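From the pipeline queue, job 12 of 40. The input is one protein chain; the requested action is below.

Action: predict structure.
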Amino acid sequence: MPTPLRIAVLASGRGSNFAALLAARERGELPVEFVLVATDKAAAPVLQLAQMAGIPTMVLDPRDYADRRAYDFALFDRIGASKPDLLVLAGFMRIIDGEALKPWVGRMINIHPSLLPKYRGLHTHRRALKAGDLQHGASVHYVTAELDGGPVIAQASMPVEAGDDESTLAERLLPLEHQLLPAVVALIAAGRLALGENGIVFDQQALDQPLRWQDGQLLR
């Protein structure tokens, strides 16, 4: 039986995407071991989710460090001690120092609520509505020093409906995020997906455009 993929999760809030990963594992869809859930906020609800599941947790307060760079190096040093194979950013609301994350490139993914490269950063739903977009969605990408600019692995899209506001758009997108992220992690855990020197490799072939979530599966 193959060794489960060791995953560390970074989150700043309620942890709904982490909960989706946890549920997928419980359903037998994810052969992974969660070795750590780390956060920058002591009151983050994600901590309770992890503790209830018996997963080690860590809180590291940025206010205890001189600057972002010092914090990020300390954070990744402690994460490294748990020996994860993959880091998953699931609502981790911090920009990470490029030098600190460099050793993790290819082993760190993030889920972002837009159809990248559109709307990097914050307020993605507001910006999509302001632009009059007919489609909105979520992307899972490899993390690099460029904010939300790493190679995009997969995307899920949905129509923007008449009368949508930021709240309803976010609410309708969240279930798609909860399907997309576990599906991508499952591919990585199965050894089917990796970041190579020349880009993403899927099933031993270069991936020239993001996988798309359709009818309950990821398709080329």
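Job complete. The mean pLDDT is 96.
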